[in-house]
Write a structure and sequence with these properties.
By secondary structure, the chain is of the alpha+beta class. It is about 45% helix and about 20% strand. The radius of gyration is 13 Å and the shape is globular.
């Protein structure tokens, strides 16, 4: 499990240094709270996270279909401190 955690941290670091256009637009908006980009939460890398308001933004891309993928991620994140 340690190797996977390190892999996720490394990937998150890479993604922070190469933001997409949509990430730049979201980062520049006035949503309130302090947002961090590419945060490792459990087994996922959140695109944005604001711990002060417990808000996580993830882009979902999956062969399962959006609804199933969102349900899977949400179930995994419930209970993550």
């Amino acid at each position: 499990m340690v190797a996977r955690a390190q892999l996720l941290r490394d990937r998150a670091r890479e993604m922070r240094h190469a933001p997409t256009a949509s990430e730049e637009r979201l980062r520049g908006s006035r949503l309130g709270g302090a947002f961090r980009r590419q945060v490792v939460i459990g087994n996922y890398v959140a695109d944005f996270a604001a711990s002060s308001v417990r808000l996580v933004v993830l882009r979902v891309s999956s062969e399962l279909g959006v609804e199933e993928a969102v349900a899977k991620v949400a179930a995994a994140l419930v209970g993550v401190p």
